[in-house]
Design goal:
Layout: E1 13-16, H1 18-23, H2 26-39, E2 42-45, H3 47-56, H4 65-79, E3 87-89, H5 93-102, H6 107-125, H7 137-169, H8 174-187, H9 191-202, H10 208-212, E4 218-219, E5 222-227, H11 231-239, E6 246-247, H12 249-256
Parallel strand pairs: 1-2, 1-5, 2-3, 5-6
Antiparallel strand pairs: 4-5
């Protein structure tokens, strides 16, 4: 008689989004980290999330300075190699995408993550909260300036796309515009087309495109989960067939056996 032995699903590798790190109370974060260590969850952080925190630390007068500095400490406690278990900083998604397409990653991106972002992040995390970050400010300003340039590029892309849409619709009456939109909806009725479109949306959510690229990946044999309270991620992941890879914080806490 053949005996079937159920195989346990591998535990996930988990990324926390920036809104999660910044919104924690100390007690809630401590409980989550203890539960992750107990369950054997692999804990990773996204270099673009770290860069977002660091950009806000370039100016002590920044409205988000305090929450981002606390978030850096929490991220380091959760993901530094001394924390125990499997953890660390991922390679940035643009480098991994390049490797996926061409077989070779972006060496400058990887070197920047390893040589600039990771050590700066660690230095700040280990600096007492009541001490200024003056020695790190030149690097922090450089990161903030780079992020501002990228955001300006996104804004220009949006303006260009709007101009292209306006050019298509120019001269059409109200009824003609309705007919154009109806044709577009019919064109995208196919589930395959909608799924492809949703996958494109996943990688084009402004800054979140870098983070969203991780949805659906396998990390060292573990499914990679993203924990976020941003509903756009959940909607796009569901449409692309990766619904189980995006969890709200409260749902993730219940899965860990903590929280309400």
């Amino acid at each position: 008689m053949r005996v079937f032995v159920p195989v346990a699903e591998p535990l996930p590798a988990v990324l926390l989004d920036s809104n999660v790190y910044r919104g924690f109370s100390d007690a809630r974060f401590d409980a989550l980290l203890a539960a992750e260590l107990s369950r054997g969850v692999a804990r990773y952080c996204e270099p673009f999330v770290i860069s977002e925190f660091l950009a806000h630390l370039a100016d002590p007068a920044d409205h988000d300075y305090g929450s981002c500095r606390r978030a850096v400490v929490r991220t380091h406690r959760r993901c530094n190699v001394g924390a125990g278990g499997e953890c660390g900083i991922l390679r940035d998604s643009e480098s991994r995408l390049a490797e996926f397409v061409t077989g070779k990653g972006l060496e400058k991106h990887d070197a920047y993550t390893e040589g600039v972002v990771a050590p700066l992040f660690a230095d700040i995390a280990l600096t007492p909260f009541d001490q200024p970050l003056t020695p790190m400010e030149p690097h922090l300003r450089a990161i903030a300036e780079q992020l501002a340039k990228v955001e300006a590029g996104f804004a220009e892309d949006i303006r260009r796309l709007k101009a292209q849409v306006d050019a298509v619709l120019v001269g059409e009456t109200g009824e003609e515009r309705k007919a154009t939109m109806l044709r577009a909806r019919k064109m995208h009725e196919s589930p395959v087309t909608r799924r492809t479109f949703a996958e494109i949306i996943i990688i084009n959510l402004r800054w979140d495109q870098r983070i969203a690229y991780n949805i659906g990946w396998i990390m060292r044999g573990r499914p990679l989960w993203l924990v976020t309270d941003d509903r756009d991620f959940a909607r796009a992941a569901k449409a692309a067939g990766h619904e189980g890879c995006v969890r709200k914080l409260a749902a993730y806490e219940r899965w860990l056996g903590i929280g309400a």
